[in-house]
Amino acid sequence: EVQLVESGGGLVKSGGSLRLSCAASGLTFSTAWMSWVRQAPGKGLEWVGRIKSKIDGGTTDYTAPVKGRFTISRDDSKNTLYLQMNSLRTEDTAVYFCRGGSKDWGQGTLVTVSS
Amino acid sequence: DIQMTQSPSSLPASVGDRVTITCRASQSISSFLNWYQQKPGKAPKLLITTASSLQSGVPSRFSGSGSGTDFTLTISSLQPEDLATYYCEQSYTTPVTFGQGTRLEI
């Protein structure tokens, strides 16, 4: 059974930083394309970005609102995905989901950015 | 970016109804279209990939069709547990984009 467990969410002030982690098990993490998806309170789903597997180049892509502020990385030796979030804004407040491929999702971690 | 437009935004329905949700892409995405179901407080659940492939374990009352720019999700006979919000997602190109969601109200 695939398990994706996010951690690192919390309350941070505007302009601050936060790093989310996603611990993966039950899948071949090193070959998985991993992504982050967020959902603001009461709103729809928004794709944040993706990192390919190293064998596929390990490159990253981001949605425009987070480009230059957020960085996705992975540690295949720890089966862990990361999301480094800098220069946080109030509009970044959301539940952040880790996703493996299209099928496997974590339970989400809440990030609240206060003004 | 490819815009995904779902309709309707909300849909009142009754148990046993046949329900259809549509999703339109702003440009052709071939069949790179996924459908998700999300219940309150939960992560989305993948129902259908590549426009019409039903995920293992998903009830056969769910089906998907379409290609290019126009897609549909159909629930043949609505059940109480289908109360949820449904999202389409295009994975044809980055940035990946979602529709705004369709809330089913039973």
Architecture overview:
The complex is a heterodimer of chains A (115) and B (106). By secondary structure, chain A is an all-beta fold. Chain A contains no helices and 11 strands. In chain A, the strands form 2 sheets. In chain A, strands 2, 4, 5, 6, 9, 10 and 11 form a 7-stranded mixed β-sheet that branches. Chain A has a 4-stranded antiparallel β-sheet with strand order 1-3-8-7, with no helix packed on it. The model of chain A has no long low-confidence stretch (mean pLDDT 98). In chain B, strands 2, 4, 5, 6, 9, 10 and 11 form a 7-stranded mixed β-sheet that branches. Helix content of chain B is 0%, strand content 48%. With 106 residues, chain B is mainly β. The model of chain B has no long low-confidence stretch (mean pLDDT 97). In chain B, a hairpin with a 6-residue loop joins strand 9 and strand 10.
Distance between the termini of chain B: 34 Å
Shape of chain B: globular
End-to-end separation of chain A in angstroms reads: 40 Å
Radius of gyration of chain B: 13 Å
The oligomeric state of the chains shown is heterodimer
Number of continuous helical runs of chain B: 0
With helices defined by DSSP (H or I, 4 residues minimum), what is the helix count of chain A? 0
Provide mean pLDDT of chain A, rounded: 98
How many strands in all of chain B?
11
Considering DSSP H and I runs of 4 or more, what fraction of the residues of chain B is helical? under 10%
The Rg value of chain A, from CA coordinates, equals 13 Å
Task: Name the beta content range of chain A.
Answer: over 45%
Helix/strand class of chain B: mainly beta
